[in-house]
Amino acid sequence: MDFCLVFMRLRIFARMDTLSGRLEELMRKHGFKSQSQLARRAKVPQSTVHRILQRDDYSPSVSTLKRLANVFGVSLTWLADGRGPVRLYVAEEGADYGDVAAHAAVVDDRLDEAMSILARMDDTDRGHVLAVLRLIDGKTSRR
């Protein structure tokens, strides 16, 4: 593999380690040319987007993070903390998520809570939870 390509991938990976890096990469990937453009789309103040991108110590509100996550179709947990699944539903480039985003926010909250609980469990307990989920899934599949 070409050294330049490896270096670029490492830079992108390093940037994804922070909220500002994840947001910057999402903006680039989705073609946002300015902070103002993203702010208008997410219905948040441009100054908030600026603070997120410029200040590592800035902690935006959960509602702001939800709005930003919905614009890009990514999970709230991943955007805020870099943990969990990046996407909770299939997103198309340039798609307007509309009602899907509102539904995904509810699903996102439930999955975030479940992921948080699972993260605190040891491997044996996670196995037990998975077994219960499989039982439940089997019951709903037979209906």
Structural features, described:
- The protein is an all-alpha fold.
- It has one domain: lambda repressor-like DNA-binding domains (434 Repressor (Amino-terminal Domain), Orthogonal Bundle), CATH 1.10.260.
- The protein is built from 8 helices and no strands.
- It has helices spanning 3-15, 19-29, 35-42, 46-54, 62-72, 76-81, 98-120, 123-141.
- Helix 3 (35-42) crosses helix 5 (62-72).
- It is elongated.
- The relative contact order is 0.09.
- The model is unreliable at 4-14 and 89-106 (pLDDT under 50).
Topology:
Blueprint: H1 3-15, H2 19-29, H3 35-42, H4 46-54, H5 62-72, H6 76-81, H7 98-120, H8 123-141
Helix pairs in contact: 3-4, 3-5
Short structural summary:
This protein has 143 residues and is mainly alpha-helical. The protein is 70% helix and 0% strand. Helix 3 (35-42) crosses helix 4 and helix 3 crosses helix 5.
Give the termini separation.
Answer: 50 Å
Q: Determine the strand fraction and express it as a percent band.
A: under 5%
The strand count comes to 0
Assign the CATH topology. Answer: 434 Repressor (Amino-terminal Domain)
Low-confidence stretches: 4-14, 89-106
Q: Number of DSSP helices?
A: 8
Q: Shape, please?
A: elongated
Main sheet, how many strands, which sense, barrel?
none
Oligomer: single chain
Features:
8 helices, 143 residues, single chain, 0% strand, elongated, mainly alpha, 434 Repressor (Amino-terminal Domain)
